[in-house]
Amino acid sequence: MATVRGLTPKERQRREDRRAAAAELFAERVPQAEVARRLGVSRQAVHRWHRLWQAGGRAALASTGAPGTKSYLTEDQIRALQADLERGAAAHGWETDRWTVPRIRVLIYETTGVWYASLGSLWLLLRRIGFSCQRPVHRAAERDEEAIRTWRQETWPEVKAPRRASGPGSSSRTNPPPR
Q: What is the pLDDT at residue 17?
């Protein structure tokens, strides 16, 4: 399920329902401490809700939307960005088919005209729409897996020094362990 700035729609609705229940309890003149206990929230939250409820009724407790600043991109632009990213970097003219955050910033600017000055805020957008950091595994082009396997099985056991026999030991040079 897609999240909107950290909360799923189900979680957002649960919070909305909790505030609505608080409004009903306020209307019934239930003490704030009891409201907090019944709803499983802090007394500070209930106190804040009560002040809002007194000033504007139940409507004042309605959600004002996701916290933080609004996205620079519309939902349609975000869906188009996801499709562009899934096509790959090579499809957009990059030499390698590897997306980096600076490349994605250029892609967004070329397709929408929006320039993300902060790579951090762009990274938050990417995480919100389901992308994660992936580090490629670098392997030498000349790597010979069969030669490596042979060396590990045959050469390494011959080269490896045998372990000392177990027994009492000491880190002191002047006082060796008793024999």
A: 92
